[in-house]
Each structure stands twice: as structure tokens, then as C-alpha cells.
User: What shape does this take?
Amino acid sequence: MSVFEGRHGSAGAPRAVWGSGGHFGAPSKMSDGFVPVTTTSALPPGAMTWVVVDRERVLLANVEGVFYAVRDACGHRQAPLSKGTLDGHVIECPLHFATFDVRTGKLLSGPVADDVPTYAVEVKDDTVYVKRAPLP
Ligand code: FES
Assistant: This one.
């Protein structure tokens, strides 16, 4: 079994898997702390999904060809933001409709909520990588 095989939440879960529970190709090398999560062609502009990076749900969005990653938990009551909507750079929470800027994780409107942590993203060839730890 490769590091990309397995199911969410299972013992020995992979460090990075598709939100759909599918598989991602062969491991490839990247700078320290970055793990491959998807391919650029699998997430077209205007789309978002979620992946798991070190047992943490991370929302991954493609905004006009630029990829962004934030923790997939609303800063209000932890609803999965990836189940909401993406309009330009704005994510809207599906539960109480707080909005966040996917570039910065900053709360834009809605109920009082914390900002959401962001993650560094890098793209090399056709592979999208997310850094394990959120940005400070
Ligand atoms: S859980 Fe997101 S706005 Fe309440």
C-alpha cells in the first residue's frame, strides 16, 4: 500500500488524500513539509475541495488558476467550509453564512468568528502541494 492509499480516519491514514476518498498518484519530492494533494487539472478554476494533510481537513481552492488552502473548519462553529460556496476569493460557510477571504483566512462578514488558518501552497509541474503546518 502506498502512502496515498487508505480511507479517511482509518488507522495508518495517509498524510494527504482526496476529499472524495480516492487515490492520488505516486509520491513525488517537494521542499520540506509539503505534501502532494492533487493535480492542477483535477481542480479547475472556481472549484474547491477538501483534502487531509496530517489528519487535518484542509480546504483547497482554485481561484483563477491560483491555489489557496485554509483549514476546512469555520471560525464560528467549525462547519466544513468546503461544503459552502466559493465566489471569487470569498468562501461562504454553509451553516450561518460567515464569509472568509480564501487568500488570507480573514473573516469578512457574518457571525462573530475567528479567522481560519491558511496553509502554504506550491505547484510544481501538474502537482499541487500543501505545507503540513498552517502559516503563523
Ligand atoms: S459555523 Fe460557519 S458561520 Fe456558523
Remarks:
- Residues 74, 76-77, 79, 93, 95-96, 98, 110-111 surround FE2/S2 (inorganic) cluster (CB under 6 Å).
